[in-house]
Amino acid sequence: MWKVVNAGGDGDRKLAIVTRPEPYAPGRAPPEELFVKWLQEGDRLEQIGHSKKMRGFMVMPVRVIGGAEGEGGWVTRRVVDKARDTPEDVWFVELRNGQEVEPRDRRRANNNRRRDDD
What we know:
By secondary structure, the protein is mainly beta. The protein has one helix at 103-117, and strands spanning 2-4, 15-18, 35-39, 44-47, 52-54, 57-64, 72-79, 92-96, 99-101. Strands 1, 2, 3, 4, 5, 6, 7, 8 and 9 form a nine-stranded antiparallel sheet that branches.
């Protein structure tokens, strides 16, 4: 599960869910025919498939937790180039058991899972 951070509200910090795997980072409005919903700070999303790299961004398929039936699509998760990654370019935090997970904790959990599979 993911929680929206550093996005939402007015102005250039809006983050959109769209119908196709296209990157629309905050500050870039999608065309009306692709638009599904504007996300707000604190919205929770469930990732429902594999993320894709698209033109310098990671996009992921999602559904809105507590949203209307079928409310979902694709959302831009982050900039691909982690060297250029700034705190303002992080629009989601991962939630595990309701708690925010640090990026290095995600890697560690995946490595432990791989070792357990051996």
